[in-house]
Amino acid sequence: MSRRPISTSPTPGPQDDSERSPKRPRIDHLTPDSFRNGIFLAPMVRSGALPTRLMALKHGATLVWGPEMVDKAILHAEREVDPATGVISYNGKSRAMFTTHPLEKPYLVYQIGSADPELAVQAAKTVMQDVSGVDLNCGCPKPFSTHAGMGAALLTNPDLLCGILEALRRELPREISVSAKIRLLPTQEETKKLVERIARTGVDAITVHCRTRNMRPRERALVERLREIVEFVHGLGLDVAIIQNGDSTGREDATRVKELTGADSVMIATAAESNPSCFSATPLRDVESTLMPSYLRLCKYLDNHWSSTKFCVTQFKGIRSELSKTDAHELKSRIAKAKGYEDLEDIVGSWTGEEEFKEIMKVVEARPPRISVEAEQGEAAEEEEEEEDIPPPCATPPDRPNPEPPSSGAPKMGLRMPLPAIITGSDAVSPTPTPGGIR
Fold first, then answer.
1. Taking a C-beta distance cutoff of 8 angstroms, is the pair 215, 185 a contact?
2. pLDDT of the residue at 104
């Protein structure tokens, strides 16, 4: 009897990897999902310098905002890259107006002060190669921002505010996110009306500083007003993240604020200005001795302007556990009197700023790549499909009883007889005859 040919029918279940549909790619640009479940560094004039942003990223900030830059100012800046450190500077006549580094680009949102859609677009296009998002300042109440209709002045001119956002969204590449930062208006209805208009411009996120334009930082933020606004926006069915800003003191407190307000994320300003490690679950204590030296070394390595460094460092303060108040005050006094980095060599030790930067780079580059919610759901569905394609092990159908074992009266078989080939589907292997009967 001839042998049965080997079956060529396809094997059920998943095939070779090359035949599977490719998984959805991970993304490096910002989307509305990037503004959810995060804790962010707020835009702060002077305090939001590059070294502070890098320190914030090192200690757990999800995204960082740069300080507000007026649209016209950046248009006349000259872009320059330091070949040694990689620092990118947008230089004015006397010094850099804005500095950044490729390390922070995936997490950096550039904030614009503008009252003109065309100028806003020009400013955004000037820096878009070095940032991941553009944010419109609609909340700063300071005269330098409001005198020309910018900042909080836009709150009373919603047509212009939304016109700028629409222009930014229309003219910028989709991979550059567009967002806005506002303040509460006097009433909930006014605030919701403005937020809805902003949400319909196509922005990815809206940050709400929970104070009104006339409120000062020392006044308690009206955090309890935000939940109604968040629920209102979610009810619109628009893919827009809502970020809370105002009075959050760190990572642990941000969790409380999210639960209280329902906000997608929390943004921190004052607490981060005092201690950029507040984004960590275990923020540094005794910052004068644990943070200042490393911050100074980093600033010198990045060639941060001394006046900027001095201002940022003198804002540092926090919980003390080992350093005395007198020692901390003496250290700050020395920094305030210093004319440059060289006056602080005995404080910082060796100027190993490059090592400080490498440590930050190691932490930041270890972050997992972003993946959108849709991609996560797609990958999960593909994995489920693959599992479903695997044939289940042989088993007796549930509606059929197992065969009864042989009873005690069953005849005992002697030698087991081979089954016919018609049943097994193959011939039994015949023993090879031994030549000459030799064993």
1. no
2. 97
Amino acid letter, 439: R
Q: Kindly state the average pLDDT of the residues 103-130.
A: 98
Rounded to an integer, what distance in angstroms lies between the CA atom of residue 68 and that of residue 96?
14
Q: How far apart are CA 242 and CA 228, in angstroms?
A: 12
Q: Residue 49: name the closest of 83, 89, 5, 16 by CA.
A: 89
Query: How far from 420 is each of 1, 347, 415, 428, CA to CA, in Å?
Result: 11, 93, 15, 9
Quick check: helix, strand or coil at residue 111?
Answer: strand
Q: What number of residues does the chain have?
A: 439
Q: Catalytic site residues?
A: 140
88 membership: H or E segment, kind and range: strand 88-91
If DSSP codes are grouped into helix, strand and coil, which group holds residue 267?
Answer: strand
Q: What are 376-406's pLDDT values in tens digits?
A: 555 555 555 555 555 555 454 555 554 444 4
Sheet holding 78-81, edge to edge: 78-81, 88-91, 96-100
CA distance 176 to 231: 26
Indicate the DSSP class of residue 115. Answer: S
Number of H helices, E strands in the chain: 17, 12
Q: Provide the 8-state DSSP code for 238.
A: -
Cα-based distances in Å from 317 to 48, 50, 323, 333: 16, 19, 12, 13
Question: Residue 232: CB partners within 8 Å, gap ≥ 6?
Answer: 192, 195, 196
Query: Which residues share a beta bridge with 206?
Result: 180, 242
pLDDT of residue 228: 98
At residue 383, the pLDDT reads 56
Tokens of 81: 């890259």
**Alpha-carbon distances, residue 179 vs 33, 113, 136, 165, 355 (angstroms):** 13, 13, 6, 8, 35
The set of residues, in sequence order, having a beta carbon less than 8 Å from that of 86 and lying 6+ positions away, is 101, 102, 103
Nearest in space to 31 (alpha carbons), one of 109, 88, 98: 109
Q: Would you state the pLDDT for residue 16?
A: 45
Q: Which tens digits make up the pLDDT trace of 291-325?
A: 999 999 999 999 999 999 999 999 999 899 988 98
How many Cα atoms are found within 13 Å in the side-chain-facing hemisphere of 385?
11
What is the distance between the alpha carbons of residues 200 and 121, in angstroms, rounded to a whole number? 19
Q: Is 171 left (phi over 0), alpha (psi -120 to 50) or beta?
A: alpha
Contacts of 5 (CB under 8 A, 6+ apart): none
pTM above 0.70, yes or no: yes
Q: Is it the case that residue 224 has pLDDT exceeding 50?
A: yes
Pairing label, strands 88-91, 78-81: antiparallel
